[in-house]
């Protein structure tokens, strides 16, 4: 088990073009490349445990990958093969849910599994709507928990109204719709991250999105991807919080996706009193540019209760900013946090309590009264975002974090970058 100790930092200036590449977009690059009959070119693919598992899976399905260490060329097979082993999604809910949609309509027998955390996460949200349109999927608890067995079939068209704003559910259903027997529609209660729609449209798929998403089935293979994966705003956000809580500091995160469904947490930080500047530099599939965060004064408490799906992954890090802000911050409508890589409501609150912060859980969120962080020993709960959030808290009061191997699932160079800000110790 890897421990991490982070020491209190002096104010810093940090400009970084090495933030981990976007995880959501990387998974999609690998999976969507199978929808073309020509090779896709992917620069800056995220080389972290989660997304490397996804590459292994597409190889098992017959893709060939040429990798010069910088650029991946993904050559799709003429016909997808039936793998001779189970497909391991590692820690990734995104991979498992997207593959459910993709494989449900691919002829063959497939078994999806993952690590002990993923095997505890609910899959009914994708398996149920897929079964309703003719998919053959089964798993423990009536198709709710992996391992999931899938027998791919041609699926029926559908008009599906989702009760949750989830990009993973939406993406699974869009992937199913591309191979369905007629035009499909999908509605969600509030727009969730929309990389799937943007990327598939860029590949030539007929997908229209207004209040409802309309997907026409593919009549021929899509065009290949030619993409440079931008930096991940949720990984960059750890450093944004770092700048916001250490007065007199400044961080610039370069070449990050500025997709509004991904930058909401930065806007909350702005509302709390940090200076946040967005500079768009290019647009290909998505707007991409730099974000600069500076904070001179004290942060103010904030209430976060809407557009939750736009900042769900950043809430653990945001809670560190809330813990040092003036006043009581509240997070509501975020029950989804309970079924992420860990129960992030409990893990955040237990961690902050260990740091001497007054805070409490509610069913769908938490309240945090800002104060002075005290040095503590923190349980990561095996969750990368909990581990990295409390590592950032260490910039204000020395922190020891237990069980930090999980950081490799999304941000393998996190510790190396943190070393540019302060003294860090790692041991086993
Ligand atoms: C993701 C969607 C989000 C997010 C996850 C990645 C994606 O989950 O929390 O880390 O790539 O589609 P939901 O689909 O549950 O909103």
Description of the structure:
The chain is α/β, with parallel strands linked by helices and 428 residues long. The protein has two domains: 3-21 and 231-427, Alpha-beta prism (UDP-n-acetylglucosamine1-carboxyvinyl-transferase, Chain); 23-228, Alpha-beta prism (UDP-n-acetylglucosamine1-carboxyvinyl-transferase, Chain), CATH 3.65.10.10. 29% of the residues lie in helices and 27% in strands. It is built from 13 helices and 24 strands. It has helices spanning 23-32, 49-60, 93-104, 124-132, 140-143, 167-178, 195-202, 233-245, 264-271, 315-324, 344-354, 384-393, 414-418; strands spanning 3-6, 13-16, 40-43, 64-67, 71-75, 87-88, 108-113, 136-139, 145-152, 159-161, 184-187, 207-209, 212-215, 226-228, 249-257, 275-284, 286-295, 303-304, 328-331, 358-362, 365-369, 376-379, 399-402, 424-427. A four-stranded mixed β-sheet has the order 22-23-1-24. Helix 8 packs parallel to helix 12 (384-393). The longest helix is centred in the middle third of the chain and has 13 residues, at 233-245. It is globular. The protein binds shikimate-3-phosphate. Residues 24, 94, 166-168, 171, 192-193, 309, 312-313 line the site of shikimate-3-phosphate.
């Amino acid at each position: 088990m890897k421990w991490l100790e982070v020491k209190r930092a002096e104010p810093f200036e940090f400009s970084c073009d090495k933030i981990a590449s976007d995880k959501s977009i990387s998974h999609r690059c690998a999976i969507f490349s199978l929808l073309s009959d020509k090779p896709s070119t992917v620069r800056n693919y995220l080389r972290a445990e989660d997304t490397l598992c996804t590459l292994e899976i597409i190889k098992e399905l017959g893709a060939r990958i040429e990798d010069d260490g910088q650029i991946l060329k993904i050559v799709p097979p003429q016909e997808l093969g039936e793998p001779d082993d189970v497909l391991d999604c590692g820690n990734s809910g995104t991979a498992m849910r997207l593959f459910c949609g993709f494989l449900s309509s691919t002829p063959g027998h497939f078994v999806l599994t993952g690590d002990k955390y993923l095997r505890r996460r609910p899959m009914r949200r994708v398996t149920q709507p897929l079964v309703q349109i003719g998919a053959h999927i089964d798993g423990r608890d009536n198709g709710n928990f992996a391992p999931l067995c899938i027998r791919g079939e041609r699926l029926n068209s559908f008009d599906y109204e989702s009760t949750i704003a989830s990009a993973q559910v939406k993406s699974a259903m869009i992937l199913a719709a591309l191979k369905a027997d007629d035009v499909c529609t999908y509605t969600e209660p509030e727009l969730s991250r929309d990389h799937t729609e943007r990327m598939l449209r860029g590949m030539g798929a007929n997908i229209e999105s207004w209040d409802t998403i309309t997907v026409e089935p593919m009549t021929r293979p899509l065009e290949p991807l030619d993409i440079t994966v931008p930096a991940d705003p949720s990984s960059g956000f750890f450093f944004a919080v770092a700048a916001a809580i250490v007065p007199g500091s400044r961080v610039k995160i370069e070449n990050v996706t500025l997709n509004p469904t991904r930058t909401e947490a930065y806007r909350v930080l702005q509302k709390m009193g940090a200076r946040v500047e967005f500079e768009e530099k290019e647009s290909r599939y998505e707007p991409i540019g730099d974000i600069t965060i500076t904070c001179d004064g004290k942060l103010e408490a904030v209430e976060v209760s809407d557009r939750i799906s736009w900042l769900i992954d950043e809430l653990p890090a945001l809670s560190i900013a809330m813990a040092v802000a003036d006043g009581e911050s509240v997070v509501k409508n975020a029950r989804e946090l309970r079924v992420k890589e860990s129960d992030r409501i409990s893990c955040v609150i237990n961690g902050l309590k260990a740091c001497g912060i007054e805070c409490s859980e509610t069913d769908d969120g938490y309240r945090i009264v800002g104060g002075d962080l005290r040095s503590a020993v923190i349980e990561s709960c095996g969750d990368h975002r909990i581990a990295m959030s409390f590592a950032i808290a260490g910039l204000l009061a020395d922190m020891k974090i237990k069980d930090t191997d999980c950081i490799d699932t999304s941000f393998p160079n996190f510790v190396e970058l943190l070393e540019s800000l302060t003294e860090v110790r790692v041991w086993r």
